Amino acid sequence: MRRFLDALYHAAAYLAAFFMIGTLAMILLSVAGRLLDFYVRGTDAYAGYCMAAAAFLALAHTLKRGEHIRVTLILEHAGVKAKRALEIWCHLAGVLLAGVLAWFSLRLVWQSYSFHDISQGNDATPLWIPQLAMALGASVLLVAMLDDLVALLRGQPIRMEKLDNEPAHIE
Known about the structure:
Elements (H helix, E strand, L loop, with lengths): L1 H35 L6 H15 L1 H6 L8 H5 L2 H35 L13 H26 L18
């Protein structure tokens, strides 16, 4: 199960990188179009879709690398039992918020698909297609949050992937 979850987080990260490249490609196409006097419909919209997809798909991988911002001022001064209780409370809140985000993102995709909602730009893209990346990223974040919560409830340390050549982090 651990290998599957790690592969899921990495796959989402690779998809996020793909969409970052897509953002770059759309911006370069738009710039080249202005310079060479041609127009490709929807480049601004597609750059935005790619940027949103990259942001949401990278959430779980960023969490598992320990790169989300945490304010630990209270945790640093809490005792062992209080620290554990606060950690569990924080992870429960994180699971709840990630669950709400995933639920409403998936619901938005379904509604856009059901109502045949299209973008207001001249590209007329069915909106469920770019919204799907947001829903997928939010769902993978929920899985990652549940993964951390289960580890915490079992008394295991939360796994955070670190690379040897990374700069030092203040923890």
